[in-house]
Design goal:
Blueprint: E1 9-13, E2 32-37, E3 55-61, E4 77-78, E5 89-90, E6 103-116, E7 119-125, E8 134-140, H1 143-146, E9 165-166, H2 169-182, H3 186-194, E10 211-215, E11 218-227, E12 230-240
Parallel strand pairs: 9-12
Antiparallel strand pairs: 1-2, 1-8, 2-7, 3-6, 3-8, 4-5, 6-7, 10-11, 11-12
Length: 244
């Protein structure tokens, strides 16, 4: 059986490309986005009562997944990043975007619902959503049923270990100026994103290599350095990126 669903909205996110996005929602609380509701779903009445909720379920499409429109390429097993990308698990035992139906599900914090320039926008944070992501549905998070205290997952029993992030004084000054101009805690956001270590886990840190990602309107670049037998992330550049 096949079904067709409408997109009720589009995500405008701080994450402009897949690389670097936290692997789960909530890991970077400062990561913000707006969901622009599309007609005819952009009616304020559809959101009456939501002001009593702090968190939302967002159902969305992995639209940038190269297999999203190629169901014939579906595979029963995938290699999740959590296991270093070199061990396979059943697709239904993971949250891999490569699925029979490329649908994702994230819990995000509701920040507000605003109307701006004729658009109805749902403001959220703690996102793991790529810019341009189509949204299929929005539902309220209901703590007494959605929070299962006795739940277990042997594959992901604990949150990932964090890596220290160092921001040199020259780049911290850029972050401070960015905060003054936009109100965005750029240093905090960069730290929350990079401390998850976006590097593919099958790659060993290479002090000679520079990594990069597009975040907000910036190209963020960093490297790895060894200190007291532990690797740390060193922010190296913040370059304005004005391309759409």
């Amino acid at each position: 059986m096949d079904f067709t669903f409408p997109a009720i909205g589009l995500v405008h996110s701080c994450f402009k490309e897949k690389f670097g996005i936290p692997r789960q929602p909530g890991l970077a609380p400062l990561a913000c986005a707006e969901i622009e509701l599309l007609s005819p779903y952009n009616h304020p009445a559809a959101f009456e009562g939501l002001e009593g909720c702090t968190h939302l379920w967002i159902q969305f499409v992995f639209h940038a997944n190269r297999h999203a429109n190629k169901r014939e390429e579906w595979k029963a097993k995938v290699k999740p990043p959590r296991l270093g990308g070199n061990k396979s698990l059943g697709v239904f035992a993971t949250r891999s975007p490569t699925r029979p139906a490329p649908i994702g599900l994230s819990v995000v914090r509701l920040r507000g619902i605003v109307e701006r320039e004729g658009k109805l926008l749902v403001q959220v944070s703690g996102v793991d959503l790529l810019d341009g992501t189509p949204v299929l549905d929005i539902k309220p998070y209901v703590p007494y049923v959605d929070c299962v205290l006795e739940a277990e997952n042997a594959f992901a029993a604990a949150p990932p270990e964090l890596i220290a992030v160092d921001i040199p004084a020259t780049l911290m000054a850029i972050c401070v100026d960015y905060w003054k101009r936009t109100g965005t805690d750029l240093a905090g956001l960069i730290t929350q994103v990079l401390q998850q270590d976006p590097r593919p886990q099958y790659q060993q840190p290479d002090p000679e290599r520079i990594y990069g990602m597009k975040l907000l309107d910036l190209d963020v670049r960093w490297g790895y350095r060894l200190s007291e037998n532990q690797y740390r992330i060193q922010l190296t550049e913040l370059i304005p990126n004005h391309q759409p």
